[in-house]
Amino acid sequence: MYCFGIDVGGTSIKCGLFSENGALEDKWEIPTRTEEKGEHILPDIAEAIQKKMQEKNLKKEEIKGVGIGLPGPVTDQGEILCAVNLYWGRKNVEEELTRLTGLPSKAGNDANVAALGEVWKGAAEGHENVLMVTLGTGVGGGIILNGRIHTGVHGAAGEIGHANVNPHETESCNCGNKGCLEQVASATGIARLARQELAAGQDESVLRGLEDVTAKDVFDAYKQGDKTAAKVVDTFARYLSMGLSSFVSVLDPDVILIGGGVSRAGQVLIDCVEKYYRQYAFPSAKDTPIILASLGNDAGIYGAARLVIQNT
Ligand SMILES: [Zn+2]
User: How many CB atoms lie within 10 A of CB 89?
Assistant: First the structure.
């Protein structure tokens, strides 16, 4: 048996054909057509699936179903409440995708689905209870309990990027609040901290010569021993650890996974976060391992495939 894992982003849709045991047989991408309120997105996916089945000579009876990860809160019933990047309002994705493909479908939030992918075939393979934090343009999160996604009543479980970690913050987050984790731990948040540090301090820094400082620049400079970068990384690590220690008090997972573009900084990022995490965490959870996610951009298609396998 085979299944499809689909990961829908704002600019492209990643598609994977998997065997039931989790071998990735084929992967490809199609563009996300957001015009006309994103009404072409699901029909485009259905067409891509049908084309692939023809190409590989696969019959409907050989396909277990289609799993799909989406950028927005998704309920256990497969309904997305809104997806700003896709120009979608409320929509029952599972019903629509099943009607379009004639295959069983299961939908989930993209960050939750990525966590499920890492648990299935990535860095957290073999673990049943995992907290995954995705540090990208924003900060996302996924919670896996007993091997399954914890969605929450509104499909919003794991939306840890908007947990308040700094009540003294004066600038506003995209969500309208002030002091969110996303403001200090996302790629844009780290760049913002760097701009603040450069404006406030007089230290010489390789970052001063750069036109537009990115999170990658900050970690590269940190690895070279740059003092300003070290201050920024320290602030980032402190806030992220405050968030993690609170979330772990609620979840008590086997492992904390860190993924997303910022995590490409590698082990140095884990080392900085661990230092504060060990300090802040509840004693019995102080030794919870913090590790880097390993599937990169493929986590979403793996998780989507796993989601439909688990639920059909
Ligand atoms: Zn926020």
Answer: 12
Q: What is the pLDDT of residues 17-58, one digit of tens each?
A: 999 999 999 999 999 999 999 999 999 999 999 999 999 999
Best CA proximity match to 308, nearest among 68, 1, 55, 37: 68
d(CA 271, CA 266): 9
Q: Are residues 147 and 197 in the same domain?
A: yes
Look up the domain containing 174 and give its range: 128-294
267 burial (CB, 10 Å; 0-12 / 13-18 / 19+) is: exposed
User: Within its chain, how far is the Cα of 111 from the centroid?
Assistant: 4
Pairing of strands 12-19, 2-8: antiparallel
- Global pTM reads 0.93
Q: Which residue has the tokens 């393979």?
A: 125
Q: Which of 296, 195, 189 is nearest to 240 (CA)?
A: 189
| Residue 262 and residue 228 in contact, taking contact as beta carbons nearer than 8 Å | no
Please report, for the domain that includes residue 304, its CATH number.
3.30.420.40
Tens of pLDDT, residue by residue over 190-241, are 999 999 999 998 889 999 989 899 999 999 999 999 999 999 999 999 999 9
State the distance from the centre of ligand 1 to the C-alpha of 310, rounded, in angstroms. Answer: 32
Ligand 1 center from residue 139 Cα (angstroms): 9
34 and 142 inside one domain: no
Asked if 136 and 278 sit in the same domain, the reply is: yes
Rounded alpha-carbon distances, angstroms, from residue 95 to 28, 66, 78, 81: 24, 12, 8, 14
Give me ligand 1 centre to Cα 184, in Å.
10
Distance from the alpha carbon of residue 161 to the mean position of ligand 1, in angstroms: 7
Cα of 224 from ligand 1 centre, angstroms: 32
Residues 178 and 283 grouped into a single domain = yes
Cα-to-centroid distance, 115 and ligand 1 (Å)? 21
The CA R_g of the chain, rounded to the nearest whole Å, is 20
Same domain, 282 and 189: yes
